[in-house]
């Protein structure tokens, strides 16, 4: 009997994108609600997407996406 293939982690796939160089791009936290109490500087910072900096965490996430 053949081995079963691992499935892609759909929750992760909806929240992150894999860049051409293999980095994980994600949306920054804190943009859900209560925008009026946050400073304009803070909101500008949150607006830009970010990449995962930890190499070990990136490898685990890529494995979950490519399964």
Tell me the layout of helices and strands.
Blueprint: H1 10-15, E1 16-18, E2 24-26, H2 40-47, E3 50-51, H3 55-66
Antiparallel strand pairs: 1-2, 2-3
Would you kindly provide a written description of the structure presented here, covering whatever features stand out?
By secondary structure, the protein is of the alpha+beta class. It has a single domain (10-66), classed as Irregular (Factor Xa Inhibitor). It is 39% helix and 12% strand. The chain contains 3 helices and 3 strands. The chain has a 3-stranded antiparallel beta sheet with strand order 1-2-3. Strand 1 (16-18) and strand 2 (24-26) form a beta hairpin. The model has no long low-confidence stretch (mean pLDDT 90).
Summed up, what is this model?
With 67 residues, the chain is an alpha+beta fold. Helices cover 39% and strands 12% of the residues. It has one domain: Factor Xa Inhibitor (Irregular), CATH 4.10.410.60.
Features:
single chain; alpha+beta; 3 helices; 3 strands; Factor Xa Inhibitor; 67 residues
What's the structural domain tally?
1
Strand count, sense and barrel status of the largest sheet are: 3 strands, antiparallel
Helix/strand order, N-terminal first: HEEHEH
What CATH calls the topology is Factor Xa Inhibitor
Mean pLDDT, rounded to whole units? 90
The parts where pLDDT drops under 50 for at least 5 residues are none
Distance between the termini: 19 Å
Question: Which structural class do the helices and strands define?
Answer: alpha+beta
Helical content class: 25-40%
**Which architecture does the CATH hierarchy give at level 2?**
Irregular
Rg to the nearest angstrom? Answer: 16 Å
Overall, the morphology is elongated
**CATH level 1 name:** Few Secondary Structures
What portion of residues belong to β-strands? 5-15%
Report the strand count. 3
Number of helices: 3
Strand order, main sheet: write it out.
1-2-3
């Amino acid at each position: 009997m053949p081995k079963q293939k691992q499935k892609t982690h759909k929750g992760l796939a909806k929240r992150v994108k894999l860049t051409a160089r293999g980095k994980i791009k994600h949306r920054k936290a804190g943009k859900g609600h209560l925008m009026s109490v946050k400073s304009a500087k803070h909101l500008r910072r949150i607006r830009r997407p970010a990449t995962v900096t930890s190499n070990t965490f990136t490898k685990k996430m890529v494995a979950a996406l490519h399964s």
